[in-house]
Amino acid sequence: MKLMLKIPVACLLLFMFACTKTNDSLELLSRQAGGPNSEIESYLFAHNEAALRDPSGIYYRILTPGDSLHFVKSNSVVYVNYLNKLTNGQIVSSSFDVTNFDGRELKDHIPGWQIGLTKISKGGKIRLFIPPVLAYGSMGVPDIIPPNAVLISDVELVDFK
Questions:
Q1: pTM score, two decimals?
Q2: Which CATH fold would you assign to the domain 2-160?
Q3: 28: which of 54, 67, 99, 155 is 20 to 30 A away, CA to CA?
């Protein structure tokens, strides 16, 4: 009789622990993104800038929210004005006018932009502080962006299709 009681209890306990979700993948991403004592936080403190932290690890500051009606999707082709720089102030790329990157969809841009541009709507401007894992990673861009570099992007979402 005791065995008959132990089996359902054991099954119930096994079911409960098997369904328990962990945040291991989020914690791993957070650690890869620099964690709480990151280069981004040091930069923000040193430059007296305020920014919000997204669970992905990017920090952002919405400069202008936009029209609050038209938001991009991953398959949107974005038309933007942008400036990318490193934490040492070196400008690594920028648009001199509105660009759509030859019709490239948002899902084909760096993850930091994919996350950040969904936080504003058409006409909005955002400053993104992107950890390397969500920018150009350990490879960087030869002769332009060093490996493991934090990328600071000022982006204006002019339009999208």
A1: 0.78
A2: Chitinase A; domain 3 (3.10.50)
A3: 155
